[in-house]
TrEMBL record:
PANTHER family: CYCLIC DI-GMP PHOSPHODIESTERASE PDEF, SIGNALING PROTEIN YKOW
Cofactor(s) it depends on: Mg(2+)
One Pfam entry name: EAL
Coiled-coil intervals: 296-326
Protein name per its UniProtKB record: EAL domain-containing protein
Domain GGDEF: 362-495
Keyword Coiled coil recorded: yes
NCBIfam families for this protein: GGDEF (TIGR00254)
MF terms in GO: cyclic-guanylate-specific phosphodiesterase activity
Domain EAL: 502-757
Domain of life: Bacteria
Keywords associated with the record: Coiled coil
């Protein structure tokens, strides 16, 4: 049986028990406190209702120590001491009684009682205790001075204490670490050159410590005798090997090499080291036997634990599958309306187009839908009402189509309907009629009644349609023709929809980037307690050729889809750095934090990150004034190199913000996984918290977590006075939203710098 383990012990009190036994004084000098300590250590391993030591004193046979004994046993000893041992022999084992005889001294019998199921454990412990007490009653007591030099030379006592200190670590260190401590201690107290533990087996030896030695195992074996101590001089050193044995159990050989032959006191120290090390190994043997006993007694418990572990694994597997399905769903669906997104739609259209080109039937039709005057609704009533409106429109559109059709949200207020197997008026008109009919009824949202109108463009696949993009472009052209014709109408695509000056949204966005018409607007972030300006978040705006200012949600999904998002982010960063440079000149010694929401695609390679850093360096803006925001969902889809790049960005002085926190499926894990300085609570929690106790509790938990972990918490989407007051009541540190201040151009920011923003809270 192996006696060594690299794991920490699960029963630290066992070492304390053995230490108590080894250092126990002679019975006539032991105090009741010392006996109590011995009993308490035994009781940590099994139930102990009775415990007593019977032995001879100057006044005859008596209970040297007793705990829990009934009066009859006490009276019997007084009345007839000679028959006491016979009486003890009649105590029934099935009642839980355990006894062990002790030789060579005043203590002659150990008596204890436990539960029947714990008798094997108690018998094993009493056997160990009886053997050690027999040795203690004949040999020198470890608690006494082992050498006359200990009284005359205090350093010997220090050396003994050094060894004792290491021995006390036996139960708290892995084996190799414990042996290394003993090795160092033997160098200090003995001047030992080598400290080796070798386990002799039938045909070869196995070195337990150290892992590598200059001497081969064959040489080490030649220095050892199976049963006796060996001393020899070899290679200019004096070698001593001791077999470590106790109660016929062999553990290993202790080999020490010294520069010279040891003197009497060195031998005493070596003997002490041997004895203590033997006890440590005996302790391990007992521990393993106890573990075996307990395992036999707890097979049902183990089976139950295995069943529970299996259930936990099944739950984890189910949760993993659910998370995987959620990840796949999130990648292909719009988070607000839960409709298929642009990626889902394009995949479906690609399949339909391939099938059409292969079989020339069935054909299909696209309806491109835009909500008229949606920006005005957002600006007037707020994004909360705007989001609710989009969700309601999604529900109504979905109720207008057939089972094989598809409703998708492209972004902003744009929707596309795919009509399967529909190429003529008989199948297209009923859908258009239902859309008009169901949107004729007003929407009632948060006390507001809204009459919504739609502009729709219709395009049907033909043999001249080359690909999906062309068909989608045609439906888009028809929708824009409906807009130009006065809105609230349906236009079927035809050649008349073509305008040589008109560009597709993709080309128009690319042209806007080229002409630097993607501009940064800035929304203030304040300290909620006093309105102090804490920072600014950059929000992209698209200034169209017609002079219309489009919000980010109208074109960011398009930029992602057509591969322009990285160029767009870099343009916004350049604009921001130029603006920040002007503000810093006005602020003098003050500073301001400006955060930019970037696509996680920038983290895909070192080259892309370097482009961002170059823009900042060339602008001359202190990098510490910038915060990069990354969406939590997006980060969760990136590989492990992302973590390295994030650390590198922070090493350059940038701070990192985890945006839309709480919307992903591993939010809490992300806080520990990614190096972030700020977390932004997604505005969906803010909008729901007054009606949903769960969302309110989540915001409260995020507040506590951010405080405990040292993050700055920013709450987004504060749209009403009640939301502001509730967050102030919760003690949230920072916030932003239209109730505090809307996004504004850079020219409007200087009056706010270094000042408090008045909030009518």
């Amino acid at each position: 049986m192996s006696t060594h383990s690299s794991q920490r012990s699960a029963t630290p009190s066992l070492l304390a028990l053995v230490t108590t036994i080894v250092n126990f004084p002679s019975p006539e000098h032991a105090t009741s406190t010392e006996y109590d300590e011995l009993r308490q250590h035994l009781a940590t391993h099994c139930t102990l209702s009775h415990f007593a030591l019977l032995g001879y004193t100057r006044s005859g046979l008596k209970w040297i120590y007793e705990f829990g004994l009934n009066d009859s046993l006490k009276e019997q000893l007084k009345a007839d001491p000679e028959r006491m041992l016979d009486l003890l022999g009649h105590l029934k084992e099935e009642a839980g009684w355990c006894q062990q005889s002790v030789s060579n001294g005043p203590v002659i019998r150990l008596l204890a009682k436990t539960t029947p199921s714990e008798q094997p454990t108690l018998n094993l412990l009493l056997e160990c205790l009886a053997n050690r007490m027999s040795e203690a009653q004949t040999d020198a007591q470890i608690g006494q001075d082992l050498s006359p030099l200990a009284q005359r030379q205090p350093d010997w006592q220090q050396k003994m204490e050094s060894l004792n200190r290491v021995m006390r670590l036996a139960n708290s260190l892995p084996s190799q670490a414990f042996y290394a401590q003993l090795d160092a201690a033997s160098q200090f107290v003995l001047g030992a050159c080598d400290f080796i533990l070798l386990q002799l087996e039938e045909y070869h030896g196995r070195t337990l410590y150290p892992e590598h030695t200059e001497l081969g195992e064959a040489v080490l074996q030649s220095l050892c005798h199976t049963t006796h101590t060996m001393e020899t001089e070899r290679h200019g050193r004096f070698w001593i090997s001791h077999p470590l044995r106790l109660q016929h159990h062999y553990f290993a050989h202790l080999l020490l090499s010294l520069p010279h032959a040891p003197g009497p006191d060195e031998r005493l120290l070596i003997d002490f080291l041997r004895g203590q090390l033997t006890m440590v190994m005996e302790l391990q043997r007992i521990r393993e036997q106890l573990a075996e006993l307990r395992s036999l007694e707890s097979i049902d418990l183990r089976l139950h634990q295995l069943r529970q572990a299996n259930l936990r694994l099944q739950k984890q597997l189910k949760r993993h599958q659910e998370l995987e399905r959620k990840l796949q769903f999130d990648a292909l669906h719009d988070p607000l309306t839960m409709l298929p997104n642009r990626a889902f739609l394009m995949n479906r259209l690609d399949q339909a187009m391939k099938h059409y080109h292969r079989h020339r039937s069935p054909g299909f039709t696209l309806i491109f839908i835009d909500v008229d005057h949606f920006k005005e609704i957002n600006d007037t009533l707020g994004h909360k009402v705007g989001d609710l409106l989009l969700k309601e429109i999604a529900v109504r559109l979905s109720s207008c189509v057939r089972q094989n059709d598809l409703v998708a949200r492209l972004g902003g207020d744009e929707f596309v309907i795919y009509l399967d197997a529909s190429t003529d008026n008989s199948t297209i008109s009923p859908v258009l009629s239902r859309i008009l009919e169901r949107h004729a009824a007003p929407f009632r949202l948060l006390g507001n009644e809204l009459q919504v109108q739609l502009s729709m463009g219709v395009a049907t696949v033909t043999e001249h349609t080359s690909d999906v993009s062309q068909l989608l472009h045609q439906a888009d052209l028809a929708m824009y023709q409906a807009k130009r014709s006065g809105r609230n109408r349906i236009v079927i695509y035809s050649e008349a929809c073509q305008d040589r000056d008109w560009l597709s949204p993709e080309l128009e966005l690319a042209k806007a980037l080229e002409e630097r018409r993607i501009l940064p607007y800035f929304q203030p972030v304040i300290r909620l307690s006093d309105g102090q300006l804490a920072g600014l978040e950059v929000m992209a705006r698209w200034l169209t050729q017609e002079g219309i200012l489009k919000d980010a949600f109208d074109f960011i999904p398009l930029a992602e889809q057509c591969g322009l998002i990285l160029e767009l982010d870099r343009l916004i960063l350049r604009h921001t750095c130029q603006q920040l440079q002007n503000w810093l000149a006005q602020l003098g010694g003050n500073s301001i934090k400006v955060s930019l929401n970037l696509s996680g695609k920038h983290l895909a390679s070192q080259e892309l990150v370097d482009k961002l850093l170059t823009i900042i360096t060339e602008s001359g803006v202190p990098i510490g004034n910038l915060v990069f925001e990354f969406n939590e969902r997006e980060l969760s889809r990136l590989d492990t190199d992302t973590l390295t790049i994030l650390h590198e960005l922070r090493a350059h002085g940038l701070q990192i913000c985890l945006d839309d926190f709480g919307t992903g499926f591993s939010s809490l894990n992300a806080l520990f996984h990614y190096p972030v300085d700020y977390i932004k609570v997604d505005d969906s929690f803010t909008h729901r918290m007054l009606q949903s106790p769960k969302d309110l509790a989540l915001i409260r938990a995020m507040r506590d977590i951010s405080q405990d972990l040292g993050f700055r918490l920013i709450v987004e989407g504060i749209e009403t006075k009640l939301e502001y007051q509730k967050l102030l009541e919760l003690g949230c540190e920072q916030g932003q939203g239209r109730f505090i201040a809307p996004p504004m151009p850079g020219i409007d920011i200087p009056p706010l710098l270094g000042r408090n923003i008045t909030v009518q809270g």
